[in-house]
Amino acid sequence: MKTFRDTLNKKDFVVTATLPLKPSSNASHIEDAATILAPCVDAIQVADDRYAVGHMSVLVAASIVMRRGVDAIVHISCRDRNRIGLLAELLGAAALDVTTLFLGRGEKFSKTAPMRSKGVFEVDATQLTALARHVGSDSSLVSNPGFCLGSFVTVFDPAEDWAAERVREKLNTGIRLLQTRPCLNAKLLRRYMQKIVEQKITHQASIIVDVPLLTSLAEAQALKENFKGAPIPDNALQRIESSNDPVREGVSVCAEMIAEVRTIPGVSGVNIQHWGAPANVVAAIRLANGE
Question: How far apart (Å, rounded) are the C-alpha atoms in residues 36 and 206?
Answer without folding.
Answer: 26
